[in-house]
Description:
The protein has 243 residues and is mainly alpha-helical. The chain is built from nine helices and two strands, in the order H-H-H-H-H-H-H-E-E-H-H. The chain has a single domain, classed as MetI-like (MetI-like fold, Orthogonal Bundle). It is globular.
Amino acid sequence: RIIFIIIGLSFLIWAGHQAYELISATKGSDWLLQLRNICFTFLRVTIAVIVGSLWTIPIGVFIGTHPVWTRRLQPLVQIVASFPAPMLFPILTLVMMRMGVNFEWGSIVLMLFASQWYILFNVISGATLIPRDLIDLGLLFRLSGLQHWRAIIIPAIFPSLVNGWITATGGAWNASIVAEFVQQGDQKLVATGIGASITQAAQSGNFPQLATGIVVMITLVVLLNRLFWGSLYKLAETKYRLE
Length: 243
């Protein structure tokens, strides 16, 4: 066992040294380029999650608050959420090519297909936990549709919604590697972003670019998880929690 630990530590030290040499050899202009790339990908991830939320939240609440539809559709949504979305990317890309969609925007569609199902599944799960008495209370006070959502639905599903957002965001970041660079036969579709940069670097053997791209992506994702999603999750667990 000690031998395996020593071998593992030795490998980590060697890998860290190699990564340091690659990164230290990278020019400042290359870092700036990767920062620009990460901004484009961040915008795409954000748009994909927002667009996905616009339809998954109302549909998910409807399914979750109607037991008949919950029994019918929740297992199906769970299966769809576990399906590897990149398998559909060639078909979706071909459709967008024939429609003349700019791939800078088309890549958002691919990220959307890779992430939206996580939001839907979590919203359904959260909506099933809303007590019927709480919904009836809103009807008793004759709340309008908007008031009903603001006072009852959103607070009740918020913890599950945050979980869905976190998972969907992670799915969109992962999908960016294959969503921003797609090859259809001899034609390459490339969207400006960190995912395309990493894929192109891996294919061309440009290891400094590959290393900097991975470092920049990991750094931003960790910061977002710590500073934004961590705070939002804490808020969901403390303020918006059904007991």
